[in-house]
Amino acid sequence: PGSDAHEMVMNLYGGMSKGERNRIKTRVRSAMASQAAIEGRFLGGRPPYGYVLVDAGPHPNPSKAATGQQLRRLEPDPKAAPIVRRIFTEFLVGQGLYAIAERLTADGILSPSAHDPDRNRHRSNSKGAWSKSAVRAILRNPRYTGYQVWNRQARHEILIDVEDVALGHDTKMSWNEPSQWIWSEEPTHEPLVTMEQFEAVQQIFRGASRSATRREKTKRGPYILSGMMRCGVCSRRMQGSWNHDQPYYRCKFPAEYAIAEHQHPKTIYVKEAAITPSIDRWLAQLFDDERIDDTCAALEAIHIQQRDDYSGLVAARRTVKTCDNKLAKYRQALEAGTDPSIVGNWIEEIKLEKKAAELQLRRTPPILSKDDIRSLVLQSKGIVEILAQADPEDRRAVYQELGVSITYHRDGRLHVSAGPAPCTNNGVGGGT
Predict the structure, then answer these.
(1) 195 to each of 82, 199, 345, how far by Cα in Å?
(2) Which of 362, 365, 373, 358 is nearest to 309 (CA)?
(3) What interhelical angle do 312-335 and 340-363 show, nearest 10?
(4) Torsion angle, CA of 342/346/349/354, rounded to 10 degrees?
(5) Rounded to an integer, what distance in angstroms lies between the CA atom of residue 277 and that of residue 60?
(6) Please, are residues 268 and 276 in contact by the beta-carbon 8 Å criterion?
(7) pLDDT tens, 190-213?
(8) Strand partners, 286
(9) What is the pLDDT of residues 81-95, one digit of tens each?
(10) How many CB atoms lie within 10 A of CB 274?
């Protein structure tokens, strides 16, 4: 590790490896594009709703055919294919996405995830309710025209931390533009809709997109409690909604899943102005002179619990020290003439182990004394007193730092908590 020449060689090998990896990726993608365009080959993945996979003969690669691998192709699903045709027909006659989802759910037709639960284990919608997003995905899928379409999505590798490339990459999926899609030259499976129907649907989507772009956007103020409000019925985060020049929070559950009204109100609205005064009053009480000792004691107990939760802190420090000792020994071995190719692998392993321990240490909160906690509480006392007059962005930042979390229940009660400990219940006026 102390040799500049060795570092240059390692950088060279790293660049060569990365270049070879990129060349392999380019060759593979080029081959898959040709197979999709010329042969119309099904290149893997889950079949679209409305189709099932069937064998299409032995694999053309002799080595794969020798192991029993088969080509696959799409065949219409007897139960789901008519539903796809129905969705396209209803949308073209003017039905909206939510209206279609509601009617499918009311008719007892299972959603795509419930129709094939074995291949959709990542979905939790066990009741089989249809969502707008499921209907939209079907209407935007070009494979219902009978053509094989590939490269609709692309996988990108993004650095986790640009300041520390050793942490590696995170894989993200993104949608490609339609101009980048690879279409087969000829139809490869039985179509469920005609090309004219599919193009008419896409034209409707494009028109709606242009209308949304032309719509003038009014600048709204920030939502102070954005991301902190949850619905007590479905446990989902409530969305900000600006009504009558006032910020509200709503849970419009049927907008995503068309379920029965007795399970969830059609829409739940809560006015922001009815919530924040109760939160401010509660926070102000915590910093009163007669309660400040209790607040400090409660925060100290929470801090001790957090330190116990980070029991790996001592182990992480011990790991860093052990890694430093090993690196020093490996350096002595290199200076003594040990083969660098052998010691180099050991060094890289220890450096990765040390970096993981250092990352854990950085994420661990600092250990505070009683005096530190009391000092922080006294500083916060002045902040709470001016919350009502504070800038909305600053007020939101204070709530976030305090870890404020609010759950709204159907009876109009709010359960408010700050940090890991539950705090209080307040009643506000809400509407359904």
Answers:
(1) 17, 6, 57
(2) 365
(3) 160
(4) -150
(5) 70
(6) no
(7) 999 999 999 999 988 887 765 555
(8) none
(9) 999 999 999 999 888
(10) 17
For a pLDDT cut of 70, what percent of the chain falls above it? 78
Residue with tokens 């250990």: 367
* CA–CA gap between residue 141 and residue 123 (Å, rounded): 20
Helix, strand or coil for residue 213? helix
Q: Can you tell me the distance from the alpha carbon of 219 to that of 43, in angstroms, rounded to the nearest whole number? A: 46
CB 224 within 8 A of CB 394: no
DSSP one-letter code for 257: B
Q: What integer best gives the mean pLDDT of the chain?
A: 78
H or E segment to which residue 216 belongs: none
Cβ contact 360:319 at 8 Å: no
CA-based nearest residue to 70, from 41, 46, 47: 41
- Per-residue pLDDT at 256 exceeds 90: no
Whole-angstrom distance, CA of residue 420 vs CA of residue 400: 13
Terminal C-alpha separation, the chain: 66
- Angle (deg, nearest 10), helices 132-139 and 81-92: 90
Can you read off the two tokens belonging to residue 270?
Answer: 């809560």
Tokens of 54: 């069937």
